[in-house]
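Handout, section B. The chain below has 374 residues.
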Amino acid sequence: MNAGGQIMHHLKRVQHYLDSTAKAKVDQRYIEVPDKPWRIILNYKTNGVEVDYNQELDYPALNDHVEWQLCFEPPMASSVGFWVGYRGTGLSYSYSLNKNAGRYFTFSSTGAKYGLSFRLRRFNISEVTFSAKETENQQTQDYEKSGNMPSPVWIRSVYVNGYYVFNGRRYSQAAAYNQSVIQRRSAGSFLIGATWYQSSFDYSDMSNYAFMMIAQGIHRIKVHQANIGFGYGYNFVPFRGLVINAMTMPTLSVYNRVKIDKYDFNYELTPETGQVDDYGKWDPQTKKWENGKSKKPMRLATGPDDVVRYWDLDSEVDYSALRLNVDLRLGITYNWKNCYLGFQAQFNNFTYKKDQSKVTLTEGFAKVALGVRL
């Protein structure tokens, strides 16, 4: 058998396996496995993301406490894409219709009792809302301003999700979200799920030095997080062809690794107003000013002679405590003949914290899909 024949032989074995597993161990009164195994889906998706970066600073000698936040909330991003697959396994690609909203690549596979999906996204954003609250001698002042970062912030996320359905004979998560099967009667099931999530928040271009100095040198945060959860899903079938699904799954992070990259500077931001003209020249070899001090006070309103020098510090890695995240989903699908129209929405929330820095990433999407079975 030549190489081409061997490939076709293995592909037929894979198809036979997918066909047999799709029809096995399901109650056909509740779950229908379509005879046509191939599916092509065109979809339109609207995606929303919000990233909040919080930092707290204390100046005990001045009885001064400052809390500030950077909020990145790009406009709702729209994308068009396609999904091609056999039974419950296939690949998807989406292209954003908005500038700098990023691209999506996903892989998914579902069976009677399991589901697995992989999602990759990367985008950058300059628009930011800066807010701060300063408490000095029990007097509080609030400040808020919107604008652009001097250089964009890059945000990257990888999301891997898997689940197991206890009542896989009568309930199918895929009926509403993957459409590889059709739910014929209402049914529900408890689910156990696991997720792997990693992301990076990077604004290390030196033109953003003022924000880095406020953040005590932090310019990049990377997180790796593993979560497990227990939830419940229900498929409501009011009449043949229509299924409405709702699923909720609180998850607990059992592995939460945060890596912080920092710069050190020859200047420091300080609320003190003192004499700063006796520092002399900066020596890049000793990393000290001429008067022997390593840092010179600087205000946010800098002058033309203020040249900020910086250098890398060793990365800090922290394994933080358990954290609670949320996975919420809603799906609606209507089937007729060999076609179907689907709607689904999903919401995820992730939080990671290091010392006095905290980053919260909230992401959700709504998607409309039109598919055909071949």
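Note. The chain has a mean pLDDT of 82. Compare this with the example in section A.
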